[in-house]
Write a structure and sequence with these properties.
Strand content: 5-15%
Number of helices: 15
Order of helices and strands: EEHEHHEHHEHEEHHEHEHHHEEHHH
Helix content: 40-55%
Structural class: alpha/beta
Shape: globular
Strand order of the largest sheet: 4-3-2-5-11-10-6-7-9-1-8
Amino acid sequence: MLAAGRCNKTSKGGVPAGGMAERITISIDAMGGDAGPEMVIPGAEIALTRHPGVHFILFGDEEVVLPVLEKHPRLAAASEFRHCDITVRMDDKPSQALRQGRWRSSMWRAIEAVKTGEADVCVSAGNTGALMAMSKFCLRTMANIERPAIAGIWPTLRGESVALDLGATIGADAQQLIDFAMMGGAMTRPVRYRPPDRRPAEHRRRGGQGLEEVRTAGRILREADLPSLDYRGFVEGDDIGKGVVDVVVTEGFAGNIALKTAEGTAKQFAALLRAAMERTVMARIGYLFARTAFTALKAKMDPRRANGGVFLGLNGIVIKSHGGTDAEGFAAAVDLGFDMVRNDLQAKIAADLSLYHRAGFRPDAASEAGNK
């Protein structure tokens, strides 16, 4: 795994001078997720309470969505609804979803709203593979980007880090890993990101051999010495949770394994702790005395707080919410989308990539230099 530490920080609150002031419009796939509108609509309303000026465009089946929306008049007043004939199912294959869901599905039309400029960001809790396939087909990748990546905000001991790729594709060559590093670095600047406290550089983990593509990518990032990135070398898996760097880069297969393992471990720890607290009378009494600390720990470990993956590398912002989350978790995904738009993520990525490509570093040239 590659690691890069940000050197550019935002001002207090994370909002840069001259930031976007106009109203933000968010397109929502109201049919996405295991519970569909019953989870999505309440989640969008929670997000609306946090961002009162936001406007929503809701896409879905009117017979299913409108009865739920009627129960949330405040959201209805801040939204417009558009009926869609087709819903992409959670078990649909990406190719199947593209064939059957293009032009008419709630997922496609929510993405298309970003393409046409009607919306600033799309949020969906639907089928991940279908969402990525449709997003790539509809929005296309940015200039000089071969593959998009899924980036997530990873809670750590020192704050939050950005990790990518978390499962968009399997495998990655050196140039793609470099692209991931550049895009992940740009993502660390929006307001929601809270940079962790840093230890001195000599104490940060480095080293590790890695595959040839990883070594090549690392060599280029070190030699490029870009002002937007402070490259820190390789990190081990246990360094992710320690928060020793701002950005962790890996290919999608390993990233997805790391993500699922972390989620499973958090649930396991919570279950074991709950069982221990209920085992004896003394344990219950001890819990009463330490209830404040346990409440804080529960909030810190709540996976809903970090819900939402950003599809980076596309000509538009798409946020993937976990399909099995609840309203609070979906609201967190909407919050993430709001932050990415509010802080002009796309422009930051384009600027960093342009700076790198103007520098003229190439994986093949770096490999040749390393073999001499």
